Amino acid sequence: MSIETISLSGRKKEVSNKKMTFLESLYLVAIFKGLMITIRHLFTRKVTIKYPEQTRELSPVYRGQHMLMRDDEGRERCTACGLCALSCPAEAITMKAEERKPDEMHLYREEKYASIYEINMLRCIFCGLCEEACPKQAIYLTKSRVMVKSNSDREDFIYGKDKLVMPLDMAINNTKQMAN
Amino acid sequence: MKVTIDGQEINVEPGTTILQAARMIGGESVPPAMCYYSKLKGSGGKCRCCLVEVSKGSEADPRPMPKLVASCVTGVMDGMEVKSITSERVVDARKSVTEFLLINHPLDCPICDQAGECDLQNLSFKNGSAKTRFVEEKRTFEPENIGDNIQLHMNRCILCYRCVMTADQLTDNRVHGVLNRGDHSQISTAISKAINNEFSGNMIDVCPVGALTDKTFRFKQRVWFNKPYNAHRDCDKCCGKTTLWMFGEEIQRVTARKDEYHEVEEFICNECRFDHKDTKDWVIEGPRKFEKDSVINQNNYTRKLDTVTIETEKQILLGREQDRKKISMPAVPLKKDEVQVFKEGNI
User: Fold this and answer.
1) For B259-288, what is each residue's pLDDT tens digit?
2) CB count, 10 Å around CB of B186?
3) How many CB atoms lie within 10 A of CB A64?
């Protein structure tokens, strides 16, 4: 037996070249059969939605764009421990640590902070391992529907702290909501 | 002298301690040690991490020792039988000792520069529990400046006295020591004096935790992102054999070479450690290897990798030779129903 005649999936069928009868050659039955399939589909559930008027429901484990959180006093939580970068399977995260100065106590939570924190969005696979590894609950993958905005330059896909850190007014709002 | 540790026999010289004998055997039964340092005279007996059970005292007196003994300061006797990891009491004691050591140790590994090569981290990873039962406030100290090269974090100290012994045995004039007593004991210099002895930098290497760290490396990089290399230079003060911790072309830190028990092979001088951060000063020998489960190995490729060739035509489309043989095995005939499915398909 040669490799060509073996059916690994068991679904291989030999094509026959048998002559059709007169009734078959009219195709009437075949056309009716085909139409029935089309008509049946008119009554089944629609597989498409009217985007953008309608949007799909997100999965509970949906992971969108990253955000570096602030605590309830508005200080950055990240302490540049490097565990997110270590756990990242795509090696998308880089950071540089710096020591907090005495006059920066209101900006950073810990003695050490990330002066540079970059995620290469072209490398990121949104697996969420960074979120899981973070001991300070600083990095989170948000529910934002916007994942990565389109761009023409590769450099623009490396997101720095300006794009990743939680906006200050958002942190203030959160604290207010917590107080209420 | 014959001694049996966890069922493994070894003949050692009289005067060897149980810990040294266990290290000669190696493997799982080596007790962890936080304060014992084989290169420092008089070290050991303080942390109680290395407790072992002596189930048979010696050939002459075969009674077991009633309490667990610190293996780093107990000498072996002829015919002694020791249980290290096989004894439930020992495992339980290690767990308790770890808990005690962590009572006053701050949980700041994300900030600490020692993280990744810290003995206490390894100890608590192996023997500690994931949760703390300690609800009181931890002991804290005022930050103190002890010079330009060494950073002291007294909060992290576990009082192993290794740094004091290093200063006593390597430098001519020790300027630091342990002040106060009990819970208040702290490593400090007498009157806020800077530590600037020739070999004082070795305090950093011997410190099992992050209490003494390199100020020139402070917060520069996490150790597992560095690439460690063995290197040497001609030094008139010390052996000059070091490990360079590189990041790209930059030398971020210089340390002495540490063996599998994180003890330095040879002490190095401060000049090598702090002042030579240029690749031109060093002769780089090659990548330094670490134990298999060390985080420092992360993303380091120290092994030579073979090139992989993929022959699409030969290996994927046609399949491997052994698989093709398996599919159309003429020696094993198909059953009757199988033949039918084979011929007609199973739709």
Assistant:
1) 989 999 999 999 999 999 999 999 999 888
2) 19
3) 16
Contact B299, B75 (CB under 8 A): no
Domains of chain B are: 2-101 (3.10.20.740), 108-117+135-219 (3.30.70.20), 312-344 (no CATH)
Q: Is A88 annotated as a binding residue?
A: yes
Nearest to B150 by CA among B187, B120, B179: B187
Query: A106: distance to nearest CA of chain B, Å?
Result: 18
* Contact between residue B81 and residue B56 where contact means Cβ atoms under 8 Å apart: yes
Q: Give me the residue from A7, A99, A110 closest to B218, CB to CB.
A: A99
Once rounded to an integer, what is the mean pLDDT over residues B196-223? Answer: 90
B340–chain A nearest CA distance, Å: 10
CB contact under 8 A, A86 and B219: no
Local confidence band at B327 (pLDDT 50, 70, 90 cut-offs): low
Interface residues of A toward B, Cβ cutoff 8 Å, are 1, 3, 6-8, 10-13, 79-83, 85-86, 91, 97-99, 110-112, 135-136
% helix, strand, coil for chain A, step of 5:
30, 15, 55
Share of chain A above pLDDT 70, in %: 97
CB of B342 within 8 A of CB of A10? yes
The string of DSSP letters for B197-235 reads -TTTTHHHHH-SSTTEEEGGGTTT--GGGSEEEEEE---
Average pLDDT over residues B34-49: 91
**Distance between A89 CA and the closest CA of chain B, angstroms:** 11
pTM: 0.80
Q: Do B345 and A98 touch (CB under 8 A)?
A: no
The bridge status of strand B186-189 relative to strand B241-247 is unpaired
B18 with B5: CB under 8 angstroms? yes
- Helix, strand or coil, per DSSP, at residue B343: helix
DSSP helix/strand/coil, A93: strand
Range with lowest mean pLDDT among A16-30, A109-123, B305-319: B305-319
ipTM: 0.76
Q: Virtual CA dihedral for B290, B246, B252, A81, nearest 10 degrees? A: -60
Question: Is A6 close to B328, i.e. CB distance below 8 A?
Answer: yes
With beta carbons less than 8 A apart as the criterion, state whether B256 and B265 touch: yes
Structural domains of chain A ordered from first start: 66-179 (3.30.70.3270)
